[in-house]
Amino acid sequence: MEDIKAYMQQVGRQARAASRIMAQADTATKNRALTEIAAALQSQSVQLLVANARDVAAARDNGLDDASVDRLTLTEKTVRGMAEGLRQIAQLPDLIGAISDLSYRPSGIQVGRMRVPLGVIGIIYESRPNVTADAAGLCLKSGNAAILRGGSEALHSNQSIAACVHAGLRAAGLPETAVQVIATTDRAAVGELITMKDYVDVIVPRGGKSLIARISEEARIPVIKHLDGVCHVYIDDEADLDKAIRIADNAKTHRYGVCNAMETLLVAQSVAAKVLPRLCKIYLDKNVELRGDEAARALVKQMSAATEEDWFTEYLAPILAVRVVAGLDEAIAHIATYGSQHTDSIVTENYSKAMRFLREVDSSSVMVNASTRFADGFEYGLGAEIGISTDKLHARGPVGLEGLTSQKYVVFGTGQVRT
Amino acid sequence: MEDIKAYMQQVGRQARAASRIMAQADTATKNRALTEIAAALQSQSVQLLVANARDVAAARDNGLDDASVDRLTLTEKTVRGMAEGLRQIAQLPDLIGAISDLSYRPSGIQVGRMRVPLGVIGIIYESRPNVTADAAGLCLKSGNAAILRGGSEALHSNQSIAACVHAGLRAAGLPETAVQVIATTDRAAVGELITMKDYVDVIVPRGGKSLIARISEEARIPVIKHLDGVCHVYIDDEADLDKAIRIADNAKTHRYGVCNAMETLLVAQSVAAKVLPRLCKIYLDKNVELRGDEAARALVKQMSAATEEDWFTEYLAPILAVRVVAGLDEAIAHIATYGSQHTDSIVTENYSKAMRFLREVDSSSVMVNASTRFADGFEYGLGAEIGISTDKLHARGPVGLEGLTSQKYVVFGTGQVRT
After folding, report:
1. Could you tell me if A6 lies within 8 Å of chain B, comparing CB atoms?
2. At CA A110, angle to CA A106 and CA A116, rounded to 5?
3. Averaged pLDDT in 10-residue chunks for chain A of 419 residues
4. Which residues of B, range 336-355, sit inside 8 Å of A by Cβ?
5. What distance in Å separates the CA atoms of residue A345 and residue B412, rounded to the nearest whole number?
6. Under an 8 A CB cutoff, do A408 and B397 touch?
C-alpha cells in the first residue's frame, strides 16, 4: 500500500513536469509523435497480439464473460484501427494557443482568451486496450500529459501499447512521461490517482455505471463523466409519420448496447393509433421486447406492462419502454422527470413545438427530426471523442479535443495602469 | 439538525423547480425583475438600513473586527450602488438561448451549440450584504435559480434584501423561489447545501481562503473557486523602465487587500541596479515593507531578508517580496514554482519574450506591459463578476454571466437516421 502510494506520487510528479513541456510543444512535433506511435503500433503488431493473447487466455481462465473477452481482444484489424485513429487525430486542427475575442477596452488594454491544455488528465477505463491508444492520442494532441489506468485484465496489452506510445514520443523528442500507463493492477492505485490534487487536473472515467459512480464519489479532483443514457424520442401529433417511424426504428435498433440508443418512446395520443401498430411491428420483427403504459398496450397487444422503474431504466438491450402522452408538455415533463439529460429528440413538422423542445429540454444533446444515435463526437464533427459528458459544467455532450482544454485571459498592454 | 436537513431539502426542491421556469424566462421578463428589484431596494432603503443597523450593533457587541464591520455596514450610498449594479446587469446582453457554430454535417444534420443556464447555483459568502444583491442579479440574468447563504452577522440585512428581491421577482411574474436566501445561521445548512447533488449544480464560495478551502474539501458538487492570488510582475532586461516602474508601482500600491495585487516582484539581473533603487524609493515612501533576496538587498538597504515562505505568500498588505532573476527562464520557473496561477505580468519591449511569457505562464490571466490590477470582470468587459476562478475546468479568471452558463448541443434534422 505504501509502495503504491509512492509509485503513484512519482507518476504524478513526472506527469506534472511533462505537462509543462507538452503545453509548449508545437503542432508539428505533436503530429509527428502521433504518426510515429501509429507506425510503432503497426510495426510491433505481432508483439502486441502476443501480449494480448496472454491477457485473453488469462481472462478466459478466470471466467470473464464473452462480451468482455470480446472487448479485450485485439486483432490485426483493430490494431490497424488504432493506428488509423491516431493518424486522424494528427489531421485535426491544433486548438492550443489560439486567441479569440481579442478586443480593446476603454482603459487601452487589449483583452482576449487563449486556449490552453488542462494539464494532467487521469483516465480510468475498463479492459479495452484500444482506449489506451485513443486516450493517449487525444491527450497528446491537446497538449496534456496523461496517466492511463486500464482494466487489470488488459495489463499486458496496455503495456505493449505503452511501449509503442513511448517510442513515438521519443522519436518526436517529447518526454515519455507525457503518457504513463499504470503498471500495477492494485486498486489502491486508482484511489491514489483520483485524490492527487497537486498532480492531476481532471479525471475521465470510462466504463460501466458503477465504476463511474464510485469514482465520482471518491474523487477529490474534477471529473468529466458520463452516467446514464436514458434517451427519448417523442413523436408529436404533427410529426411526419414516415420520418417518425424511420427515426424511432433507428434510434432503438441501430445498436442496442450504446448510450445514445433510445430507451423510451413517447407518442402523442392523437397519432398513437396510427403510428404505434406500424412501428411496433418493426420492433417485434427485430425481437425488441416492448413494455408500455395502458394506452400503448391497448394498441399493441404484444406489449407487457411497464413499471415506474422502466421509465428510469437504461436497458442497453433490445427492450423499449413506450408511453402515450397528451402532447408536448407531457413529453417534456416526462423527460425532465425520468430522463438522464443525455440525448432526446422530437419528431414534428410544427416549428413552434420544435423550438420549444430544443429550448426546454435540458439534455446535453437535443434534436429535431433526427435519430438520437447521432450524439457522437465523429457525427458532430469533433473528429474524435474521449467520451460523452452528462455533467453541466465545463463540457456537455460528446467531449473531443476542446473538452481537454480551457481558456486563460491574455492582456496586451502598452504600459497601462489602473486608476 | 434533522430540521435543518428538511429545511434545506425543501429549499433545494423549490430551487430546482424554479430553475426550470428561469431557464425559459425571456430577456424582457428577467430585465424587468432586475429593475424592479433595484426600485424596491431604493424604496425600501430605510427598512434596509434599520435591519443592517441591528446586524452592525450585534456584530460590534460580539467584538467583530473593524474591517469586517466595515464590510457589513450598508449606507444610503451602498444601497444606491446595489440598485445601480442590478440596473447594469439588466443592460448586459442575454446569453441564454444563443446558438453558435451551427453547421451542416455530411449526414445532412445541422449541429450547433445552444447556451443554457447551469440550473441551481449555491453561493456561500461572508458578511457582505451587497453580495446578496449582486449574486441574485447575476444568477437571475443568466437564467439560473440561486440559493444564497451569507455570513451569519448579516442575517437581518440579507433577509431585508431578500424581501426586495422577492418583490421584484413577483412584479415580473417570476417565482420568488428563484432566489432563496437561507434564513438560518446554523452551519449545518452549509454542509447540506454543498452535498445536495440532486438540487444544486454548482457551488460558488466567496470569502477568505480558509472558508473556500473547507468548502472545496467537503463539497460533493462542482465548485467554482478562487484560492490564492500570488501575483507577479517580471521586469525584463529589455523593459521600458518607465513603464516598468509605473506598472510595478500600480500593481502593488493601487490597493493592497485585493487578490490581483502584485505580491512578488521579479527583476532581471542586468537592469536591477537601474530599476530597483528608483522603484523601491516609491514603495518606501508609501510605507511598503520590502523583503528581498540577497541580490535585491545589495541594491536596496532598507530591505529585509525574504524567506522561502515569502515567495508563496499572498500578503494582501503593504508588503512586497523582491527577487532578482537571471532572465525570462528563471522568472517563468519562479512563477511556476511559487505562483498561484492567478495573474502574472511581464514588462518587456522584446516581442519574442512577450509571446513566450504569454504562452508559457499557466495562470488565469497573463499580461504584457499592463498592471495585474486589470484582472477584473469590469475591466475585461464582462460587465460584472461573480468572482475570479483559479480553477482550470469550466471557467478561468474573472467569472461573469458566461461562467454561470454552459452549452448543450442542438441538432436540426429533416428525418436523418444513422447508417
Report:
1. no
2. 140
3. 90 97 97 98 97 97 92 96 96 97 96 97 94 96 98 96 98 98 93 95 90 89 89 98 98 95 98 98 98 98 97 97 98 97 97 97 97 96 88 92 96 97
4. 336, 345
5. 10
6. yes
